[in-house]
Amino acid sequence: MSPRAGLTPERLTVAAADLADEVGFENVTLAGLAKRFGVKDASLYSHVRSLQDLRVRVALLAGGEMIDRIAVAVAGRAGKDALAAFAGAYRAYALERPGRYAATQIRIDQSLIADTPALRRTAEITYGMLRAYGLSEPDLTDAVRLLRATFHGYCALESTGGFGAPRDVRASWDKAVDALHIALENWPQEETTDG
After folding, report:
1. Could you tell me the mean pLDDT of each successive run of 10 residues in the chain, 195 residues long?
2. What is the pTM of this model?
3. Cβ distance 73 to 86 under 8 Å?
């Protein structure tokens, strides 16, 4: 297949994302992607600069897909309903698209994030949901970190079979979301000093 045959950065990114879901994000290589298209590795370099460039492209694609699901889920909701919808969409994406989800966890240069509509949208939706709890900075950032750590940790453990107790994993997830809702409603206020 030559570049004339339809090889584009976008097509390579989608194929790499599919491959990540099949073999794991860390196992995606340019050689594996080239093999999928029946071309030599070198021919990919006219479409992507490097493996790192490809990984960032997959991360941005996956981040956009994930926030699209979350946005649909939270539309018209607030408070606990929005939190539960957000959490459910997050978990579903992480479990259904494991390679893509892993890509969303890589560190991306902040200048790329600022120029990416999907990642700006992620911040808008997440912070918007949390503002409904009456939070403002620096509490918003702290709450985002709490949600991300909880959701990611839970999904990472669930995807590897890390929960061995007989309790239903979904029931525990629902309790965790309930607990997060209570924490957000009762967020500890930082003490201020007048002076």
Report:
1. 68 97 96 93 90 94 95 96 98 97 89 74 92 94 96 95 92 97 92 58
2. 0.90
3. yes
